[in-house]
Fold this protein.
Amino acid sequence: MRSVELSRAEERARAAVLREYGLPFNGRAAHGVAAPEDGTARDLSRLVGLAAELCGAPYGVLNIITEDHQHQVAAAGIDPGICSREDSMCARVFLSGRTTVVPDASTDPRFTDNPFVTGALGQVRFYASVPLVTPSGHALGTLCVFAEEAGALDGTRQRQLETLAAQAMDILELQHRTRQLKATLRELQRSNDSLAAFAGRVSHDLRNPLAAILGYVELSEQDPDVPAHGAASGYLRTVAGIGRRMLTVLDDVLGFSRVGGTLQRTELSLAALVEDIRQDLHPAIRGAGGSLTCNDLAFVADAGQTRTLLQNLIANALSYGRPGAAPTVHVTGTAGSSGTVLRVIDRGKGIPAHERRRVQEPLVRLHRDGDGSGSGLGLATCARIAEAHGGSLDIGETAGGGTTVTVSFPAG
């Protein structure tokens, strides 16, 4: 009989903890549980071998005990295996919360009828085990050493065995935290994908009626019965301005929601991309008396998303020039064995160092010098495009003043 019994509810709670820890495992997926990282199994095997060596025992195992079975997930001196919980020696003592040391199991009332002692499954004599207990107080199994001859364990070696059991629990705890982190990241990704899809649907649904409203406003502005300088005309201009700003925001939201997914990578010309963007932004460049230059570079990326990234960065650079100075924007590209690096360099107002990470978050706007335009999604979209390519976006300072945005796309 087991020295300590759990109620069915307590056993179910312990089973739930085992699942959270991804246990048991046997070096591979088992019982619907994912296998551990290779490093986890390797570290546990080395630790079990060290425990057996320090205790002068030929055999050592790390056991995980479920409701019905004992799983040897790491072993030294024997091949790991599985036995029924009723046959397990460790199952009779692991819930006690104490270290168990038995010089001769054949004379111990707890084990005299055990098949691993009687010869039915083994002839264990010396036996020592330490429970593996989680920080929440649930016993998962044991670290144990044993021999087929009677033996002893002095105080020093018992403390060493207990220390190694604590280290084994630390390894299992690390795997548990890693599993939790991965699950959290997967859930965040699902949440982000759902949010982006929802934002895309909403912005798409709102865009069409808003475009219709702007169309009617434009028709009204052209109506000869509406005085060009009357109050009605002023109201129409106000509505048109608000509508166009809303349309810009919706377009930004729609663009943000579309980033990611399956990338269509192709060879691109940086000079050709920038020239296309120059045509789109020509009115803004000419109106500000600015300039846009670049070098050429052939690189591989998603054409549509890279164009969106560069256009957003260049438009930002043109929008935030220094007062009284024509904006200048220079785009550079370099390629090496590690990948492609694109830089958009301006000599505008710059972004304070403490704001450079924050402005890459959705809906963050700096309102520099009273500016209230923009949706706060431009840089967030650029950062998301870089991440979709497996890269990164960093904001720095241009020597002499201004902002340099660096986008890195890794090779491959």
